[in-house]
């Protein structure tokens, strides 16, 4: 089996809540994601994705991912996508660093390997760990009452992390979320003054 073509698609992922706001007046209404399709001569296509958390964290991230994928593509044509170790060495030789660029291609090749072996990727990576998993849920910086709305409307399990140290100061989290205790963490890296919190 050989890679015949690598395609990268820009996909804007609109936010369910309309926008995500954080300190400094920053906000985003859609994430600039890149979906990669790796096509093979056997007719099997694998898919992967790389998506930043908005342009204010790393402004060139999304465009850089697509540029890096375009740079890597010609080096991977003719390679066997199921030989992941060899393929990753080839990517490293063609582009030093930038693991985020390679991640979507790597995911797509794992997807191909799973399809041709009839195995879920989690089994290929060593086996399933439990029946469920913690979810990551960031809450937009809003007034305290508005910030609690996603918890009350959500049917998903409680979030594992909440990014907004300022909310920890002004917002009292419900002791229980959908019948399970909520776990919270804070990220103060985005213009939040940890000494004033």
- The CATH class designation of the largest domain is Alpha Beta
The number of strands is 7
**What is the H/E string?**
EEEEEHHHHEHHEH
The biggest sheet, with number of strands, parallel, antiparallel or mixed sense and barrel status, is:
3 strands, antiparallel
Instruction: Return Rg in Å.
Output: 20 Å
What level of helicity do the residues show?
Answer: 25-40%
* End-to-end Cα distance: 56 Å
Kindly report the name of the CATH homologous superfamily of the largest domain: Enolase-like, N-terminal domain
- Please give the domain count: 2
Number of helices: 7
Assign the CATH architecture of the largest domain: 2-Layer Sandwich
Assign the structural class, choosing from mainly alpha, mainly beta, alpha/beta, alpha+beta, or little secondary structure. Answer: alpha+beta
Fold and architecture overview:
This protein folds into two domains: 3-124, Enolase-like, N-terminal domain (Enolase-like, domain 1), CATH 3.30.390; 132-197. The chain has seven helices and seven strands. It has a three-stranded antiparallel β-sheet. The chain has helices at residues 61-76, 84-94, 99-117, 121-124, 144-147, 149-153, 165-170; strands at 3-14, 20-22, 26-28, 30-40, 45-50, 135-136, 159-161. It is an alpha+beta fold and 197 residues long. It is 33% helix and 20% strand. The longest helix is centred in the middle third of the chain and has 19 residues, at 99-117. α2 packs antiparallel against α3 (99-117).
């Amino acid at each position: 089996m050989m890679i015949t073509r690598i395609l990268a698609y820009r996909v804007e992922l609109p936010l369910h809540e309309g926008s995500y706001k954080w300190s400094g007046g920053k906000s985003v209404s859609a994430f600039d994601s890149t979906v990669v399709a790796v096509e093979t001569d056997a007719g099997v296509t694998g898919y992967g994705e790389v998506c930043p958390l908005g342009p204010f964290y790393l402004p060139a991230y999304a465009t850089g991912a697509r540029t890096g994928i375009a740079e890597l593509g010609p080096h991977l044509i003719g390679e066997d996508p199921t030989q992941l170790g060899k393929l990753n060495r080839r990517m490293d030789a063609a582009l030093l660093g930038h693991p985020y660029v390679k991640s979507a291609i790597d995911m797509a090749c794992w997807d191909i390997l799973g399809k041709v072996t009839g195995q879920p990727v989690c089994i290929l990576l060593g086996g399933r760990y439990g029946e469920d998993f913690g979810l990551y849920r960031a809450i937009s910086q809003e007034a305290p009452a508005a910030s609690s709305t996603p918890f009350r409307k959500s049917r998903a399990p409680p979030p594992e992390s909440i990014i907004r140290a300022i909310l920890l100061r002004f917002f009292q989290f419900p002791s229980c979320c959908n019948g399970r205790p909520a776990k919270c963490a804070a990220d103060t890296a985005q213009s939040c003054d940890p000494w004033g919190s």
